[in-house]
Specification:
sulfur carrier activity, 5-stranded mixed β-sheet, 25% helix, alpha/beta, molybdenum cofactor biosynthesis, Cytidine Deaminase, domain 2, Ubiquitin-like (UB roll), 8-stranded mixed β-sheet, 2 domains
Length: 283
Amino acid sequence: MTTRPDSLAAAHVLRHAIEIGPEGVQERIELGIAEEIPLTLIFNEFHVHAVMMVTPLDLHDFVLGFVLTEKIIAAPSDMISCHIERHDEQLTAHIRITGADFSRLIRRGQRLLTGGSSCGLCGVTSLDNIATATPSLPAHSIPVSSIRAALNALPDQQVLNQQVHMVHAAAWASPDGIIHYVREDVGRHNALDKLIGILSQSPRDPGRGFCLLTSRCSYEMVEKALTLGISTLVAVSSPTDRAIQIARKADMTLIGNARRDRFSVFCGGHRLVRPETLEMMTT
């Protein structure tokens, strides 16, 4: 028997943002934002195998797909049961498998990953390992026009993507909107890690400019940026709710749905400088 406490309503929340459109026109909007919650996988009430970041929807399908692709079981019928519980912002999957499969899993030990190209947490084995960094970020201003200029310039600087049309990019631009570094990779985390690597060796102050992401922005992308003191993060898609919470706590400027003519400001709007005399709406 399988318990599925998930629903579409539980998989997203509504959050307010400020959309800045052409010529700096502002509009307060409400957007559906995906939830991102840690799911602890416990086998036979004994073995804590991994903690994965998931959207709390179709969780039974996730667990079954996970145990099959990880070769923990050979067939769907080998998963005897899966009971999923939610307590506050944590999920636990109690998975029961056959004795033979469990013995083989124990011999394998806890999950060791090489860092998949799209995983959110990459399988840590304890919720204590999910850190929420809250460094002190600089209050340098970023003109809205500079963000637009960088968004316009980025496609021409994605040299690998121009050839293959399927890789992610992470870029860093100075406050004037000039892009100084672009790094590309099939994995969105890898692209950002590459950018952080070059920035860590650069004489430029990462906090004085802003980072552009061509990928979705989940919480760990925010945390990666925070490790180097990047104070403004611009992504082409909406961030997850956990990403917004972490960015707001760190006083980061977080922008999503970034297009050449408009974008949504989820928090930290005080850093943005508009050409008009009107003040930035608070987020």
